[in-house]
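User: Okay, second chain of the day. Same drill as before: sequence in, C-alpha cells out.
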Amino acid sequence: MTAADRRLAAAAAALASGRAQALLARGPSPAAAEEAARLARLPGRARLEALAAAVEPAPAERRARAEAAAAAERPRVARLLAELALGGAPPADVAGALVRLCRERVSG
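Assistant: Same drill. C-alpha cells below.
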C-alpha cells in the first residue's frame, strides 16, 4: 500500500466511516479499501489520529523542504529555517512575523 493509499483510507474512515470500504472498493487499490474498513472500526478519536498521522510529512521530507528553502535564502534566514525544521525554538531577537513565515515555508 502506498502513502497515498494510506491517506485516502484514513480520510475515508474519518469522514465516512460507515461507507469507507464501499467507497474505496471502487478504486484501484484493494489494500486501501481493506485499510479503510479496519480504520472505520476504530473509535472516532483513533480514526482522527490515523488521519493526522497519514497527512503529517515524514521527517526526511520536512528536512528536504527546509534545505531547499534555506538554499534560496540569505545565511541568517537559512539558519532560522534549519532550526525551525528541526523543531527548535527561534532566537529571541528574530521578529515574530519572520518566524511565522519561515514556519509556513518549512511546513509546506
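Residues 3-15 form the longest helix (13 residues).

User: Thanks, on to the next one.
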